[in-house]
Amino acid sequence: MVHFGNLKPKKGKIHIEKDMCKGCAFCVEYCPKDVLELSEEFNVKGYHPPVVIKEDDCLYCQLCETICPEFAIFVTLKEEEEEGEKGESRP
Amino acid sequence: MKKDNPTKKQNPITDLLRMDRIPHIWCPGCGIGTVLTSFAEALRKSEIDLDKVAVLSGIGCTGRVAGYVKMDSIHTTHGRAVPVATGVKLANPEMKVVVFSGDGDISGIGGNHFIHAARRNMDIMIICVNNFNYAMTGGQVAATTPKGANASTAPYGNFEYSFNLPYLAEASGATYVARWTALHLRRVTKSIQEALGKRGFSFIEVITPCVTLYARRNRLGDGLNLLKYYHEKSEIQHGADTRTVDISYQGKLIVGKFVDIDKPTFLDCMNEHLGKVLGDKYQPYGVNND
Amino acid sequence: MKKVKADPKGVLSGSHYLDGDYAIAEGGLAAGCRFFAGYPITPSTETAERFSERIPSVGGVFIQMEDELASIAALIGAVWGGKKSMTVTSGPGFSLMMENIGLACMMETPLVIANVQRGGPSTGLPTLTGQQDMMQVRWGSHGDYKIIALSPDSPQECFDLTIEAFNLSEIYRVPTFVMTDECVGHMHEKVVIPPAEEIELVERKWYTGPKDQYLPYKNDKDMIPFMIKIGDGYRFHTTGLTHDERGYPVINAECQDVCVRHLNDKITMNADKIIRLEEDEIDNAEIIVISYGITSRVTTRAVRQARKAGIKVGTIRLITVWPFPEKRINELAKKVKAFVVPEINYGQMVLEVERCAAGQTPTVHVPHCGGWVHDPDDILKAIKEAAK
Known about the structure:
- The complex is a heterotrimer of chains A (91), B (290) and C (388).
- With 91 residues, chain A is α+β, with helices and mostly antiparallel strands.
- Chain A has a domain at 24-77: Alpha-Beta Plaits (2-Layer Sandwich).
- Chain A has helices spanning 26-30, 63-67, 78-83; strands spanning 12-16, 36-38, 50-52, 73-77.
- Chain B has one domain: 3-Layer(aba) Sandwich (Rossmann fold).
- With 388 residues, chain C is α/β, with parallel strands linked by helices.
- Chain C is globular and about 70 Å long.
- At the B-C interface, strand 2, helix 3, helix 5 and helix 10 of B face helix 3, helix 4 and strand 12 of C.
- Strand 2 (72-75) of chain B pairs parallel with strand 12 (237-239) of chain C, so a sheet runs across the interface.
């Protein structure tokens, strides 16, 4: 039996630039943990941008960041932020 | 929320883009932005000196990529990005030269340049975003439109055979050939990374949704529907015989890395041959940097 | 404008017996051309052959491209990559190059194209002479732009004017053309190539300011923007689309106005500095024969005979064909009885002469549809007719 000790899954924080979104919903559909959903509100362009509904479930896979054709969404690593501002928090 | 200050944070891709030109012109659900993100990620991961990367595009939707990347970039004429890239590479062999363009640009109007650059094993990388039609001009039939699909200049359906681009690239002499869909984000990134690390002519085809034209004319739904099609019908077959990777209308998409070989590039061959024939009279060209 | 001496590596100093095509290649090498991309086409191929033979030991690259579309495209890439570059072609290939000649103009790319003209249209007379691309060189690509074109009348001048073409293209950041023809291209004569230190070249207008302030299309005082090369860390953008100072596309009428006026005005406003003419016995002339290239050599005989017959004939040889010497022709039109314009086509530069004469004096055209040079008697006849 393999023990991973106190290895914890990573946690991500999702940042959404609402007004850059064109509402394609790629991020919502392909988030493996269903963290996002399209909001009811409209952005300045008249699209429904995504909102984070289950932030605690985000595992920092950054798939939403890469799939977004509008560069409107990105993820930072949560623990590091909590430990203090370490600047760039990418692996 | 805690000491969170979103205004301070930035999407890491913004370092690689001319943010004063964003938002881009691409339609909602278009996958070019996704491929561009994969490209940016590959550049970041490969830790390449961005001053030594040149991005060239032709004309068309994907042709606009050169205008968005914050690197030396030339937006050339329709189909001519490959020969312009050849000139850049030969004038300045230390550059990593990337042609980022569409299927019409690369295989339609620029088809001849494409096969000849591959034949010479010119050390350039081609990222070909294939959306199965001429999108910028309104969804006309292309050399890549699958038989049976509708297009604005094939209103009764396309009855021409289409190009099998990986087969064309391999047959012409490419040393790296891969095909993915826009949904294979990580794999696209990895392929671009691999190609960046290689010398020689590399070709990466990325099947990408065109919602406004190709999907609409064929009643295929929106971007999500196309991604779902990619998800359901893609089959990864690394090393597949490129003769077998034809694409039929809404049929199976064989993806993967098909070719990854090494052979001397144009400049390698030139230097080796002229050095042999001319002896001391010949000073190897661009050899320190290449 | 920074002047430098030629790199001795490319200069084949001495007295040679060369044809015009070879002299163009030697001129290019002496001018510092280190990238040549071309496609074989009669009667220009010898230039490419000469380049392919000479350039490896000079430290440059020769590449035979898949067609002329690719040749000029590769040139543009190489110039932005930092090399001085040229190509050579003839009628059909010239037609194919038109697309990217427009791109080179739009991106203000300095490069040199030699056109060894043959008879057209279409495949026409591959092995026989013509001067039939004189309007195409000016107007062939779509949109409004201006270029510089020179016309040598001897192998020696093929050498000299190719160097001058490089200098002009660098000064004004514009494609510059050496419009010769099959006769001059295949004519063998003595060509004297001076020592490298006697050849004066214009260096590219390199930008040297702070990197983050570089704007690829911001005009300097002399209207010409500074240039950089790919790989120097400027991370610049250039495009064939209508663009602003940053090189970013701006698709509207205002930007188009600025952009297109600039491309044209930089040549028009410097026309006096660019234009070179060879004038002979103009002062008291009644008739002026205007010619260029090989035709000016044929004209010499006709003019000599006309003068013997007592007609006061002056000549103008257009060394610079474009920009056209509008002012000079207009000025002379007030004084002379007629202009006579022989050329190996069915009426091209004569239209310019006529336009600039502006009805002040008649213009007599002596056409020749190509395949051979004029019979001097035909020109003489036209002079006599005009002098009546």
